[in-house]
Amino acid sequence: MNMDMDKIKKLINDSYQKIKTQWNEGKIQRTSRVTYDVTWNIILFFIIIGVVGLFFAGGVGAGYFASLVKDEPIRSYESMEADIYNYEETSTLYFAENKYFGDIRSNIMREEVKLENVSDTLIQAVIATEDRNFKEHEGVVPKAILRAIVQEATNAAVKTGGSTLTQQLIKNQILTNEVSFERKAKEILLALRLERFFDKEEILEAYLNIVPYGREASGRNIAGIQTAAQGIFGIDAKDLNLPQAAYLAGLPQSPSYYTPFKNSGGLKDPGALKPGLNRMGTVLNRMYEAEYITKEEYEKALKYDIVADFNLESETPMDQYQYLMYEAEKRAKKILAKQIASEDGYTLEDLQNDEKLNEEYMILADRALRKNGYEVHTTIDKEIYVAHQEIIKNYKNYGPDRTYSVTDEETGEEVKVVEPVQVAGMLIDNNTGKIISFIGGRGYSPENTFNYATEAKRSNGSTMKPLLDYAPAFETGILQPGTPLADVRTYYGKYSPDNYSGSFNGIVSARKALAESFNVPAIAVYNKLMNKGIGQEYIEKMGISTIKDAEYSNLVLGIGATTRGVTIEENINAYNTFANGGEFVDGYMIDKITTNDGKVIYEHKTKPVKVFSPQTAYLTLDVLRDVLDYGTATYLQSQLNTASSVDWAGKSGTSENWHDYWFIGTNPNITMGTWIGYDTPSPLNNCDNCAPYNERNMKLWAKLVNKATEINPELMAPEANFERPDGIVERSYCAISGKLPSDLCSKAGLVYSDLFNAKYVPTETDDSLITGSYVLVDGKAVVAGPKTPQEFVNGNGLTFNPEFLKKNNYDRLNDLTKLFPAKDRAKWERIGVPSGEVGSTIADDGKAPATPSSIKKSGGNLTWNDSSSKDVVGYRIYRASKPDGAFSLIGNTTSTSFGVSDGNAVYRIKAVDYFGMESTASEGVVVGDLSKPEPDPKPEPKPEPDPKPEPKPEPKPKPDPKPDEPKDPNEPKKPEDKEDPPTDPGDGPVTPPVEPPAQGDGDTEVKKDPDKNKEE
């Protein structure tokens, strides 16, 4: 071992001496110079080759890059500004008074925010995670791009990406997510250009407003940092703490993977939350490395329970406001479509007449609504709307569900279908047309968003009568409220309308016919209007557009039996015409649309349409008051909290076969209507254990009105009544003809009074009566015949004028007493019926009348039962002092009672007919004690017939109150309070042709169902 060491030392020493000698001799210097020169020359050769190669490769690369971007236009500042700030921001929806309630449905929810309103911590987290050199680079980082290319080429496990925030903004706002060299080349070029035009803060703000963040608590896709902060944590972007900022900053790398919420809403399972939590840790680490946070802050943030901050699943506006979301969106879209089309030179008529053009602009409007971040302000009162939806949800008296079976077209199997009673309604401000609240239906679901209030077309039944029949007739002078109308069996070709009750009511005033909703008079009125070409123009001015021209020739339209139906909104809305003094104000829901910075792009302007005169509007309202006072809606008086203090007018309506039931009420401020019916029309009255179908709907209407009144009494319960305009007067008229009262009409006690448009006060005097002698036959007055015993004749009595009967087609009736109404019927029955002129039913059968029966003494009177014969005009009374004695005539009467003394006697009664024939004597009735006979008295002289009591004179009408004075509460108006109400001058009562078919009714189509066309 020692020997080896010595050898090594000797070798080293020899080598050192050799090198030293060569150095001293200069040999080493000469050798190394040659080696250096050779080495350098070799290196220089490769450098030159490399540079040439690089220039060649660079040239090829540059040429390739140029070829990739050759089609990309040189973008101006304005062009790039429009692109990067086009956030496709979701439009928002508001109740009245600027109360937010939701966003327009969109594929992605986004709300713009200014950079100054974003947490600095969030900004630092984004820069540290996505682009650490953001503040230094010029749009791209070559080193990062090369690194990304190498990682992609080598398929590295970790890929850091090469895009700056600027490039990501370009990719999202100008280009696409396409993976290609061409797209990447354009991205680099545009990023460099964008950095020339915009400062870093502008770029960062744009990026934070467009980047996707996965889903929010209800499962909707979200984008933009403000929407993410609200949707995930329920706070604004400016209030984010460090862990929250780190969590959000990590989401954009893979939003669907890292988001904490499921597609259907609600938190993911704990295991599925881990990727997002791990990503938050990565972001915090990068912030620490970038020295944005300290180690202490880093460690504290890692321990933070971020899961506790996540929003809980909650109802979305779509869940809460269902129909309103869809309806507001639909209406806003139509408004925008019209505006965009107008900018392109198209009119509303162009869109209405060209389905394809309209579809094109509706698509453009839909796109604008979902991308432009508009604020859509509705007229809906939040508190009333929400309360109304709650009432609809909890109401228990709709009636039973309808269950039936249908055949599945695909399987051929029978499928059971269950339909609930549907409901719709609307509350509208009369003066402005603002839709304050509405009811879209029951059983809303994402699959069934059908809005019954705005989309359903239903027969409107008797709610049509004021709109199409009575108001146009009042306007043109064909009718006034007191005009007599004949409610009798009437034929129009093969069609004969029925009333709801199945009975007829004789001659009634127009007021009573409308208040109690008789069908026959309504058809008669519409027939007269239709023959004069009146009606359609009025209904169309009131916004009802669903009825087609051909339908107006169908008589049943006069009672609301429509082929296509009308929408609930149209029908309710039309009634504000009366409340607005004859001017129709179209209802609207979209008050204005603005940009998110407050610029108004649309604002509704109310444009009233003149339909009726103020006088016609008031007369119609005054009659519709009676609907609630004594007509078909008296039930409401027990249901309304303000029935006695609010001036309500309204109309009920039932469609054919009880398929639909309506009530529409109006007061000086608002109009409110409701409808119920099955989706597939079916009778509503088939329910044994339910309240009457009309009460079910009216009770609901009252609940809705009462609740709205509780919330806003000033709106719903005005203290003022409908204002009575000038030109309305009160006048007396004859209830038979509608003309000015004659002395004979006064004598008959049939002078009534009512309100008139001063233009249409009658000027002719009644000619319906003449004087004449008559007798009472079976309780009815008949002109005495030549054989009629004079003791039973009332001389100088009243008789219907044959000319009047003929002029009004009453002579065609086989029984004139069908004209006699229930009201004051006794007075009508005392009027004689002209024999032979109207087909007298009294025929001479040649037989004596039947004998009276059951004669007895009661008090001081003899009484008996009527003869069973129908031609009896009176009775003769005979007396004898003993049963087998001679009977003498002592008196006569037309009644079944006769006064006698208490003296001892026997009495018998004989009936006398129209032709003077006597019946056999009745059984005798003994009065007193016949054991003490008295001499037979001399026959009593023939008594004079009972004089007809004179009617009390009618009180003079009170002078019209001044317009600014309160209405006299004693003003005669309603049938319960006064005689019937006024008529159309010079034209007689509006009466349908009776029995024979009327002209112009050949197109009338009516089912023969006996329940068809019945109203309440």
Account of the protein in words:
With 1016 residues, the protein is α+β, with helices and mostly antiparallel strands. Helix content is 35%, strand content 17%. The chain has 29 helices and 33 strands. It has a 5-stranded mixed beta sheet with strand order 2-1-6-16-17, with helices on one face. Strand 19 (649-654) and strand 20 (661-666) form a beta hairpin. Helix 12 (270-289) packs antiparallel against helix 13 (295-302) and helix 18 packs across helix 20. The longest helix has 43 residues, at 27-69. The chain is elongated, with a radius of gyration of 48 Å. Mean pLDDT is 82; it is low at 1-5 and 938-1015.
Short description, anyone?
It is built from 29 helices and 33 strands.
Mean pLDDT metric: 82
What is the strand arrangement across the widest sheet? 2-1-6-16-17
Distance between the termini: 134 Å
Supply the number of helical segments: 29
- The share of residues in extended strands comes to 15-25%
Flag low-confidence runs: 1-5, 938-1015
Q: Characterize the main sheet.
A: 5 strands, mixed
How many beta-strand runs? 33
Structural class: alpha+beta
Rg from alpha-carbon coordinates = 48 Å
Helix content: 25-40%
Shape: elongated
